[in-house]
Design brief:
This protein has two helices and 14 strands. It is of the alpha+beta class.
C-alpha cells in the first residue's frame, strides 16, 4: 500500500513538473502543417482559411483523431463593408497585422481577429485557447488568458467540432467566468499598442489533464506607418535597380 501511494505521488509530481514547465515556456509557432484548412469556416462567412497553423493527432483508439487549426485575419463588420488592414503571414506561423482600432462602434476592438478550429472527441479530450493581452515579446503560457472550447456553440461528443473568430477586444475575454474563461492577470488588451501577441490552441487528455498537442501562432501588431515605410523602401529599391539597368 505504501509503495502504491509512493508511485502515485511520483506520477503526480512528474505531471505537476511537466505542467509547470509548459507554463514557464514562451509560446512559439507550433504546427504539423501550415496552409489551407478547407473544412474551417471559423464560425463566419468569408474568413480566409488558406493560411492556417494545422496540427493533427491520430490516437490509437476508435474516434480518437483530432485536428486543430489557428490563424489570424483582418476583422470585418457590416457584412464586410468595413475591414481592418489586410493581415499577412510569413508562412511559418507569424502573422503581421496593423495596430489600431478602426471600428467606431467598437473602439476597443483590434483591426484583426484570431480564428480557431477544433475537431475531436470531447469524451477523450479537453480543448482550450490561450490568448495574449501583453504586447511584450516572448510571453510565457502562464501569463495568458484561457478560453475553454465547447462551452458555448461547440458540438460535443465523439464528432465534436468547435470553431470561431475572436477579437481580443471582446469583453468576456477579460472577465473570469467559471467554466468559460480565465482572464489574463495582465493589463487589459489595448488595440493601439504595438507589439507581439501569442496564441495556442491546446488539446489535453481529459483524464490526466496532460497536454497532448497544440497549434500556436504569433501576431505582430505594427503601425500603419511601418507598412508604409516598408512599401516606400521597396519602391526605392526598384528605382535603384531600374537606374542601374539603364546605366548598364
Amino acid at each position: 500500500m505504501i509503495k502504491h501511494f509512493a508511485a502515485h505521488s511520483i506520477l503526480g509530481l512528474s505531471l505537476a513538473i511537466s505542467t509547470a514547465s509548459a507554463s514557464a515556456q514562451a509560446v512559439t509557432p507550433t504546427f504539423t502543417t501550415f496552409g489551407a484548412l478547407p473544412a474551417a469556416t471559423f464560425g463566419g462567412s468569408g474568413i480566409l482559411n488558406t493560411a492556417v497553423a494545422i496540427t493533427t493527432f491520430a490516437g490509437s483508439a476508435a474516434n480518437s483523431s483530432l485536428t486543430l487549426g489557428l490563424s489570424a485575419a483582418e476583422r470585418c463588420t457590416n457584412g464586410g463593408a468595413l475591414c481592418g488592414a489586410p493581415v499577412t503571414n510569413d508562412g511559418a506561423g507569424t502573422f503581421t497585422a496593423q495596430t489600431g482600432a478602426p471600428f467606431a462602434a467598437n473602439p476597443g476592438y483590434a483591426s484583426w481577429n484570431v480564428n480557431f478550429y477544433a475537431q475531436g472527441n470531447t469524451n477523450l479530450y479537453s480543448f482550450k485557447l490561450l490568448y495574449d493581452f501583453n504586447p511584450v515579446v516572448g510571453n510565457v503560457a502562464s501569463t495568458h488568458g484561457e478560453f475553454k472550447l465547447f462551452t458555448v456553440t461547440g458540438i460535443s461528443g465523439s464528432g465534436g467540432l468547435d470553431q470561431n473568430s475572436l477579437n481580443m477586444g471582446f469583453g468576456f475575454l477579460s472577465t473570469n467566468t467559471p467554466g468559460l474563461t480565465i482572464a489574463s492577470a495582465l493589463t487589459p488588451f489595448n488595440p493601439n499598442v504595438n507589439g507581439e501577441y501569442s496564441f495556442a490552441l491546446i488539446a489535453s487528455d481529459k483524464t490526466s489533464g496532460l497536454e497532448l498537442v497544440r497549434s500556436a501562432i504569433l501576431v505582430s501588431s505594427v503601425p500603419e506607418s511601418d507598412g508604409y515605410a516598408l512599401g516606400l523602401a521597396g519602391l526605392a529599391g526598384l528605382g535603384v535597380m531600374a537606374r542601374r539597368r539603364r546605366a548598364a
